[in-house]
Amino acid sequence: MYKLNKKNKDNFYLLESIDKKHIWHPFTQMKEWIANKQIIIDHGQGNYLIDTEGKSYLDGVSSLWVNIHGHNHPYINNAIKKQLSKISHATFLGLSNVPAIKLTELLIKIVPQNLTRIFYSDNGSTSVEIGLKIAYQYWQQHPQSLHHSKKKFISFTTAYHGDTIGSVSVGGIDLFHRIYKPMLFETLKAPYPYPLKENLSQEESELKAIKELEKCLKANHKTVAGIIIEPLMQGASGMINTSTQFLQKVKALSVEYNVLLIVDEVATGFGRTGSMFAVEKADIQPDILCIAKGLTGGYLPLAATITTEAIFNNFLGDYLDYSTFFHGHSYTANPLACAAAIANLELFEKNNTIEKLQEKIYRLITDLKEIEKLPHVAEVRQEGFMVGIELYEDKKNNKPYAPEKRIGFLVAQEAIKRGVFLRPLGDVIILMPPLSINPKELKLLLETCKKCIIHITQK
Ligand SMILES: *Cc1c(COP(=O)(O)O)cnc(C)c1O
């Protein structure tokens, strides 16, 4: 009926009409989607996305925070093709596979030394679900029965850990999560530092949050299984950062009160903060580490939940002890995805990706200083290659824009018009380019972002 890749208008309209008639897009008001012209991506090249009409867009958000080395990279493509000619999928229940084992060897070398056991799944949300279930079951099977009451989780306000019900339970983004409240399990909430909203300095805000967390642990530690945190940078809440000291204090409290620390590096992992993992910057060791997004370089869905040998050992027993971790997915440790992940990690090494990133981060910081001066930019928050630019109606009087103004959305629309793909979070403009972005493209990204903010906020 129709041919993909044919650059002609009829083809576009046909594709668009099928999309609008039958597809339900994520995090999208479909009424609005259906009413407007949409972009349909045909292919990618380097740090650009190219649509069915041949228009290209600099990928300013790494295709929702996943892409690392650019699109259509021959090295990752070849690794997938090579694996494709062997086998695309074999179950991990009762079998192992070569790419999964090779990937494991590489991952164990780069994660904190105390983490030795990898449980694979397919996306960030499942990696968190698995982390929560492992932590819960760990205490249930603890040889000391007094620990069996450790069943609850402490999570932070404004946290985002994914969209499945367990990960929503430990989430704290009211807009996304409130409707599901009756479906969720109970958690204890610790306030996450958000100095802009609290009108406090970073230090004061963090001190206050730590005090609250300590109070919560003191009162509840006997019933708490673990604390879950996005390290250094909360992502989906609009890039809200903390100091490394804050993370270190959370770690220290988890040790003092004997609760597990689950660190969700789904967004921060694989170089985004300027180190391979955010926990490296704070020099802390989590009990459970969740990774996904950048694991395959942004090519295929794959996630991992990585734990210590001590946690793993609590699951060992005779068959009839039923201390097995009864969890798995059809595509656990998919060989194609693992092959892509291996190629991704090899590229990090071959290209000195992390080392080369430092100069780009320096340039990014310099250019962001210009954006920070704009009259409607309330705050620029940045950690490595993760940036949130929060826009306010009135900076002096601490007044955000009314949501119906849709300022963030308008800025992103303007950027897209000018050939840069952005996806904001409310009125926070997000910049999270692929680590492979070159200085010229980075300049273009920041200049376009600045021009669009000026265009929309100062008209
Ligand atoms: C994106 C994200 C998730 C969820 O990952 P999905 O692959 O979208 O399910 C979980 N935690 C954090 C911190 C994330 O940024």
Descriptive account of the structure:
By secondary structure, this protein is α/β, with parallel strands linked by helices. It folds into 2 domains: 136 residues, Alpha-Beta Complex (Aspartate Aminotransferase, domain 1); 273 residues, Type I PLP-dependent aspartate aminotransferase-like (Major domain) (Aspartate Aminotransferase, domain 2). It is 41% helix and 17% strand. The strands form 4 sheets. The protein has a 7-stranded mixed beta sheet with strand order 4-12-11-10-7-5-6, sandwiched between helices. It has a 4-stranded mixed beta sheet with strand order 1-2-3-16. Strands 13, 14, 15 and 17 form a 4-stranded antiparallel beta sheet that branches. Helix 4 packs antiparallel against helix 14 and helix 5 runs parallel beside helix 14. It starts with 8 loop residues before the first helix and ends with a helix. The site of pyridoxal-5'-phosphate (PLP) has 15 residues, from helix 6.
Give a quick precis of the structure.
This protein is an alpha/beta fold and 459 residues long. It is 41% helix and 17% strand. It has a 7-stranded mixed β-sheet, with helices on both faces. A 4-stranded mixed β-sheet has the order 1-2-3-16. Strands 13, 14, 15 and 17 form a 4-stranded antiparallel β-sheet that branches.
